[in-house]
Amino acid sequence: MTEMTSALYMPDQIPERHIIRYRILNHQMGDPVREVEVYASPEEIQQLVEKGYLVRKGLIKGQALERLRNALDEVTAIEMERRGPGEAIKGSRQFGGIFLRHLADKHPAFLELVRFQPTLSVARAVLGPLVQIRGMGSRIVLPGETNRETEWHQHQQVASDPLAPWFVRPHGLDCLIYLDEIDENNGPICVLPGSHQDILKADLPPEVYDDLPGQVELHLPAGSIVMMHCMLWHRAKPPKMEAKRRLILLNYTPTWMKQAPYGVKPVDGLTQQLLQDGNEEARELLGLGGYT
After folding, report:
1. For the domain that residue 137 is a member of, what is the CATH number?
2. What is the pLDDT of residues 161-178, one digit of tens each?
3. Is 5 part of any domain?
């Protein structure tokens, strides 16, 4: 498989790595072997598995961070003009703000995230070698908005009670890339460690905004990434000051899960560039390969 790289980071920013050697059990493909250089230690991967989240503080810095900020501001301005503020800004207290979808098709800076090894390699460490980007979107909260927090929620609520004998629970890695500082003034994120383990036990009613026993409140510098299981309970607290809060959501799942249904994919989006040379990895990451 041809390796795709990204210019968003310097390799020495994550010194602890390890190799996983996968053999894909498919006789028609010749049982191919793939090696994944995981940008995390085995202990960090174990923490992600058990607690449901892994934090990378200030991973994206300097010009790379500014490039993502400027790109998101550009796309936001275009979307606001096209849709109008009344349609673009969500008024619900549960999930207020501006939501954008299919970012990799709308700006070259986000196209680089398709090949972002610090998150992609971790996804392959916990989901296996055949992964896709299920979605790449963003949430932007602007100064002056009234609905700047979120309720406690999961990103993949598809379970039933009782669980059917052959129910297949969803596994996915959701990466929250914060382009602005997340602190007491700007609204920190709270996670409930381990809440992804038992998908029925941690069931919460809608519109819960209070602190919960065992929660961890994360205060993070700009450029930080929170990687978490798609069924980990989490929320964003309301900010105390008027400030812009920009978040990119990058979601990984196994290749055989369907793509996220949100938004309208541009017909001539930028991701078509990655498919023109028939790159196998690009087809997998964009949901067009990796299964038979």
Report:
1. 2.60.120.620
2. 899 999 988 899 999 999
3. no
- The secondary element (H helix, E strand) that includes residue 234 is strand 234-236
- C-beta of residue 266 within 8 angstroms of C-beta of residue 136: no
- Per residue in 245-257, pLDDT (tens digit) is 999 999 999 999 9
Question: Phi and psi (nearest 5°) for 127?
Answer: -110, -10
Residue 166 to residues 89, 163, 258, Cα–Cα distance (Å): 40, 8, 19
Q: What is the dihedral of CA 235, 239, 243, 245, to 10 degrees?
A: -10
184 in a domain, yes or no?
Answer: yes
How do residues 266-276 score in pLDDT, each as one tens digit?
Answer: 888 999 888 88
Domain span at residue 177 reads 11-285
Buried b (16+ CB within 10 A) or exposed e, 229-241: bbbbbbbbbbbee
Q: What is the pLDDT of residues 71-99, one digit of tens each?
A: 999 999 998 888 765 555 666 666 778 89
- Tell me whether strands 225-229 and 53-56 are parallel, antiparallel or unpaired: antiparallel
Amino acid (1-letter code) at residue 229: H
The secondary element (H helix, E strand) that includes residue 248 is strand 245-254
Does residue 3 lie in a domain region? no
Look at residue 292 and tell me if it is in a domain. Answer: no
Number of domains composing the chain: 1
Q: For the whole model, what pTM was predicted?
A: 0.92
* Cis amide bond preceding 162, omega within 30: yes
Q: Which amino acid would we find at residue 5?
A: T
Structure tokens at 77: 């301005």
